[in-house]
Amino acid sequence: MCLGVPVTDDPAPPDTGRPEEIVAIGWDDAAGAVRLLDQTLLPGQTRTRVVRSTAELVRAIAELAVRGAPALGVAGALGVVLALDEAAREGWGDTRRDAAIDAVRDARPTAVNLAWGVDQVRPLIGQGSDAVLAAARALATADTAANRELSRRAADWLLERIDRPRLRALTHCNAGALATSGWGTALGVLRELHERGRLELVYTDETRPLLQGARLTAYELAAMGIPHVVQVDSAAASTILRGLVDFAVVGADRIAANGDTANKVGTLGVALACDAAGIPLVVAAPWSTVDLTTEDGSGIVIEKRASEEVVTWAGERTAPPGTAGFNPAFDVTPARWVSAVATERGLVEPARGTTPRDLSGT
Ligand code: MRU
Q1: Of residues 143, 246, 253, 331, which has the active-site annotation?
Q2: Domain, as residue range, for 113
Q3: Is 38 among the catalytic positions?
């Protein structure tokens, strides 16, 4: 799907040193710029967007050229590098530089990782751009390692509870390598099960209105050779209640201290259906997505996106002129319907009363 984004100068994927892996975001030393795999164009076109300024980065985040909570964390950290370089280039003072950093930090409100990424590297500003870049790169490396660890933990938990040779899964939105620094969270769990020979089939919700499931998750599952089908979001409850899946696994944009979880709108419906069917809903996320300063889901700001995303299709209006779209990008699943939150620090079972808060000292 093309969202009207100007396509870049450069069709090559980011140089990651790991050509076998999809990499959503990185720093290009030669260009002195951020390189994004432009997710507005996938799966039809694999194009890189070269981002040279904080204003361009804010636009790329708002347009979802880079998206997914952990990838946004890296974008936030690299945004600070861009701001420092821009300040040096343009002769900005500290006030202008800090405003540019804040604009990146606030580009989307729900995924806590974006602000987290900025805040992790901001204290290093006094040490210069190279020090900030090194810290941003370290965040990305740590994110991939976290995703691998949480995937192992979630897979172990599922296999201890579900007595089938190969499991059937449902996922919503995209929480794969495209949404992270690498490996993925919810998709990382599926990848882990697949590598253990324990995954039968993945039902992928298409994820209206921007189709992250149909466009991005299916793209990743296909690349990994994982058997999958795409279904309309409104099929999910029936698929679950008909007994076609053994569990659902999703990523998260923000997990409150009590386990309430914000994720792509539609996740709550999946959770309710899982509860009714008596199957687990697993939330897979790195610790950077846990926000212990937010006590519960009532404190999570839900991004409202443009009406047009809902009332148009492929550039054509679907609803009558004058009808507005209601477009919350996320919803909050209360902890009582979250069977497990798997992080690299450990796994808790909010529906049974253990919460992310319990992992804070680990
Ligand atoms: O609007 P998006 O595409 O950024 O929403 C992404 C999601 O909701 C993901 O499930 C979440 O960020 C976790 S990504 C590992």
Answers
A1: 253
A2: 19-142
A3: no
